[in-house]
Amino acid sequence: MTEWDTIARCQQRLRETTPLPADQHLMLRVVKIQEEAGEVADAFLGMIGGTPRKGVCKTKQDLQAEVCDVIATAMVALYELAGPDAERIFAAHIDGWGTPEGAR
To answer: Distance (Å, rounded) from C-alpha 36 to C-alpha 34?
Structure first.
């Protein structure tokens, strides 16, 4: 079983349990990416003590977990958008990063 198999199962479960109409599922997945990105920022600030009121309250492991949540959430959104082609689309996109023209 691959990560994409897990993402497909997760996307299917979310489709079955989300109370919104099917045509709004993609919107929800895209907005969820931003929510998770905010949690990355919060974890980073907590790790470096960037919020004086809270001080250092997060660990590197907390930050790593939040980054993983962003990645997985984005994968679910891509699967919602592209279905089983998501893995191929993502691989082709990432492969382009290895070229001088594709460097980000």
So the answer is: 5
pLDDT per residue over 60-74, tens digit each?
999 999 999 999 999
What is the amino acid identity at position 47? M
Tokens 């994409």 -> residue: 4
- What lies within 8 Å, CB to CB, of 46 at 6+ separation is 54, 56, 57, 58, 62
Give CA–CA dist 21/9, Å, rounded: 19
Domain ranges of the chain: 3-96
Residue 6 CB coordination number (10 Å): 13
pTM of the model: 0.90
Residue length of the chain: 104
Instruction: Determine what percent of the chain falls in helix, strand and coil, rounding each to the nearest 5.
Output: 75, 0, 25
DSSP letter, residue 6: H
